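Hi support team,

I submitted a single chain yesterday and got back a structure, but I'm not sure I'm reading the token output correctly. Could someone confirm the output below corresponds to the sequence I sent? I've pasted both exactly as they appear in my results page.

Thanks,
R.
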Amino acid sequence: MAKAPAKTEEGDETPKKKGKLGLILIIVLVVIVLVLGALVALLLLKGGKDKEHEEPAAHAAPAAQQLHTTGTVDLTKPPTFIPLDAFTVNLRRDEGDHYLQVVAVMRVADATMDPTLKAFMPEIRHRINLLLSSKLPSEVATVEGREALSLAITESVNEALGFKPVRDAAGRPVPNGPVQAVLFTSFIIQ
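Hi R., thanks for writing in. Yes, this is the structure output for that exact sequence:
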């Protein structure tokens, strides 16, 4: 006769590996199904968001053109900065002998203006030199004076490129052209 399988303390049979293996397989399958479901849901949500972002981008194009024509920064693309070589000029002598050393960059609407600006650079540097040397030390010593100087340089550079100067209601120059601003990175008066 055949021997009966050995019984454990609880009276169960020892080889219950099939039951445990089945349980482990079910748990692994459930985890895989949950992960796949989460990935599908994520892809569907991401696909919906991409379509939502495309619609405002289509509406933003006319707004971007309006922003560009009014002299402000077009937020749909980053600005381009074109460095200028350092300027060292003697200031007007009405207040003694002083000189001014300025390092600046021009913020332009897009990178396609770089070759044009380089072609006009001798005239641009000439105009900036004349403008800087016409100032008194007291005129450029204050923050307001430096901001006014920056606006005047921006206007002069755009004028050199063929854009007529535009003034606001207060009579201050408003950027009108490819150069949106002239930013000082170093400003020393001695």
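A quick pointer for reading it: The domain at 80-189 is CATH 3.30.479 (Tetrahydropterin Synthase; Chain A). Let us know if anything else looks off.

Best,
Support desk
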